[in-house]
Amino acid sequence: MANKLFYPALFHTAEEGGFWISFPDFPECLTEGDNMEEAYEMAVEALGLCISDREKEKLPLPKATFPLKADAQKDAIIVIIEFDMEAYKKKHSAKAVKKTLSIPEWLNEEAIRRGVNFSQVLQEALIQKITS
């Protein structure tokens, strides 16, 4: 899956103020916000939940509706939501996984002597590897 996805959202004016948001491509995805900034942030989070759920269930993601074809009503504004899967996972997936690995004994001893945090070094190296 690509790291960045773009889906149209419909920002509907709420009677009590603010917005409620729906997604033409994700009928199960609804959220709300008191102002445009909060509504956009909530839309990104809601979209992330829906995409993550579909990914966990091994369901394909829908192709994004062309924004001008989105079923906009009178009270709705079409807003394109940018979703970054890598950033979302970093923010929401803090579960640690134990890994067993082997390194030369001399390297282990020197790293311990210098107070190296093995987990941190491995995480930084892996992030650099997958983002370059």
Blueprint (SSEs and pairs):
Elements: E1 4-13, E2 19-23, E3 26-33, H1 36-56, E4 76-84, H2 85-92, H3 105-113, H4 118-131
Antiparallel strand pairs: 1-2, 1-4, 2-3
Average pLDDT confidence is 88
Q: Give the number of DSSP strands.
A: 4
User: Largest beta sheet, briefly?
Assistant: 4 strands, antiparallel
Number of helices: 4
CATH level 3 topology of the largest domain: Double Stranded RNA Binding Domain
The helix/strand class is alpha+beta
Pick out the low-confidence regions. Answer: none
Q: Tell me the radius of gyration.
A: 21 Å
List key phrases describing it:
132 residues; alpha+beta; Double Stranded RNA Binding Domain; 4 helices
Structure explained in plain terms:
By secondary structure, the chain is an alpha+beta fold. 39% of the residues lie in helices and 24% in strands. The protein folds into 2 domains: 4-92, Double Stranded RNA Binding Domain, CATH 3.30.160.250; 96-132, no CATH class. It has a 4-stranded antiparallel beta sheet. The longest helix has 21 residues, at 36-56. The mean pLDDT is 88.
Give a quick rundown of the structure:
The chain is built from 4 helices and 4 strands, in the order βββαβααα.
